[in-house]
Amino acid sequence: MTERQLELPITGMSCAACAARIEKVLNKLPGVQASVNFASEKASVGLMPESATPEQVLAAIEKAGFQVQAQTLELAIGGMTCAACAARIEKVLNRLAGVEASVNLASERAKVRWQPGLADAARIIAAIEKAGFKAARVEGQSREEERARKEAAYQAELRRFWISAALTLPLLGQMLFMFGPPTEHGHPELPRWLQFLLATPVQFWIGWRFYSGAWKALRGGGANMDVLVALGTTMAWGYSALVTLLGLVHQHVYFEGAAAVITLVLLGKLLEARAKARTSEAIESLVRLQPRTARLEKDGQLLEVPVDSLMPGDVFLVRAGEAVPVDGQVLEGSSAVDEAMLTGESMPVSKGAGDAVYAATHNGGGLLRCRATGVGEQTLLAGIIRLVAEAQGSKAPVQRLADRIAAVFVPVVCAIALATFLGWWLVGGDLATALVNAVAVLVIACPCALGLATPTAIMVGTGQGAKAGILIRNAEALERAEQLRVLALDKTGTLTLGQPRVTDVQDLGVGRARLLTLAASLEQGSEHPLGRAILAEPEAAGAAAAEDFLNVPGHGVEGRVGAQRLRLGSPDWVLSCITAPDPALLEAVAGLQEQGKTVVALADAEAGSLLGLIAIADPLRPTSAAALARLSAAGVRPVMLTGDNPRTARAVAAEAGISDFRAGILPEGKARAVTDLKAEGLLVGMVGDGINDAPALAAADVSFAMGAGSDAAIKAADVTLMRNDLNALADALELSRATLAKIRQNLFFAFIYNVLGIPLAALGFLNPVVAGAAMAMSSVSVVSNSLRLKSWKHRP
Q1: Which of 118, 235, 352, 493 would give a disulfide with 498, using CB separation of 3.0 to 4.6 Å?
Q2: Which pTM does this prediction carry?
């Protein structure tokens, strides 16, 4: 039985310890493997159905003190004719486990609330279709609602913060008197009963979220940041309240410390939430690109309809200056389309009949009449959004250490705080000092910074990559790309333009036209680049398909054309059937190959006579040499892999500035070449077209697919480069190194903050208020540092 994958949005996490706790709880279940991302607030769960059920997974999460956020879905319903239809759909949907639905006949919409793990959008739509109706997802609706929910929660927390600040400021204000001259009764302060009245609502009303979170964590058998804050502030408030109630006027009270810590932590959470929202701006900007309506051509009329209603095969028009609504193929018209949002390339791309256009790209000055080929979730844009979302939710190997530490962080801090309290009390004999220092230890500790260090940088880095046409499959690929030291490159279509053209024709008595016609007869239907170059010649128009056709991989083709048995392919293979090859011909072949041209020979195999030579050249991309120089400067050694003969390969490699190449490699041999390179002990990458080079891409440590433009190519490699330009690969390596540098900076800051802060607090050098402020700002600092990646730009 195959593994089932669940993507569960989690609410209630307040720090990395929460994420670690959920992972630990879930991974204890038989047949379950889970990964929790604190930054994206999601859990990726794989489970074997025969060992565990989704219900058990959800129950385990709730028992640990967290919740799986219910999702909403809006569907456009087709086929309803009366209220009974709407009632039927409601009944069908509400029978599904974890689903609550409401259907509106007038608007022909269904609003569905469903529990991830128990149901999913595909199952809901399938149930409606099984009932005899049509259903189409209203794109972006759940995303909009999720954003609105988070914004509402943020505004509620903001109001609570301002109330907390208003109550806390008078308490902090009295600290100013500490700098003035003391009176006969000491430094002036607010009446203690007033301090009690101001601090108590902050402690138990504003701070209730910490008690609630702590109780849920402890009930689930774990501990999180809420435990630290609740425990520390309660100790400070409780001691102060006891001193006040007993009238011990000579004992200092710490109401201002407890209230200030709660207020500052709330401020930190607000700043953190706002900063975290900015890390996912890349996806939001992609979602906003697609237009809401399309101009549909139907029954001779032009109708403006919602984009979601378009179906494959529909004909639509894109006027000058409009965005393309869905993926399609141009039927009529010509224009220049700005595809920068897909490829990062600023220059518009010319489009005419037969060319593909993609959703959300921007039409220039012409009118295009197109047929829809991909709609809804099947568009290239939707595929990119899915890929970026998956990458942003993935976990890099470098995060494992932080996860292990976060899992035991809070219990260790509590132990240190207890030791601090007992040490100062027993050695110094001062209960108040012992209490203050223990509270400082509790509130200075910050597991959040550890949990946010990696995922926030990954989210920003992959988002910036998407804007530049660099699609990174997951965080692990990003980390491996940063370590890349050897890069294997396919020649055709990667280093070169991938548009071979016939440059020289040398016939031996049959005539140029006849030679090309015979060669084209053997290449009928060929998809090989060299075959396509021959078929592109005018003389190929009169060619007829050969009989008794035989393809010899890596060498060429044979077939009968009329009375002749012809052989077309590599000179060595073709000349093997020639009785006595002319040495002058061999010199001619060598001369053409040394110019970087690929030579194919045509012979009459039965007569043993050579009919002629055809030279084909695929020009180097104008940017390849400069891009390879960038890679070399970055410490990456390029190695060219090609099926060409050594002479041609040497000429192309010299033009590109490559010193290491492998020539005469058959397609299946590229994977072995990559494996041989890996045997040198360095991390090896492979760049190709993403489909034809699949074995070599799979063999590489990290693979790059160039110039995708299709969903199939997006799935073919670890990193998809939407631009047909090796500079995009150099950009990808620069981005990976910039992202990993930010991750290391964040982890260093998070570790050093706690390594230095906790001992300083334990030794009595930090006031709880200062400790609380430092803790609140630590997470904000980590996220802000990640956001600096937004300044990264790809080279045009």
Answers
A1: 493
A2: 0.74
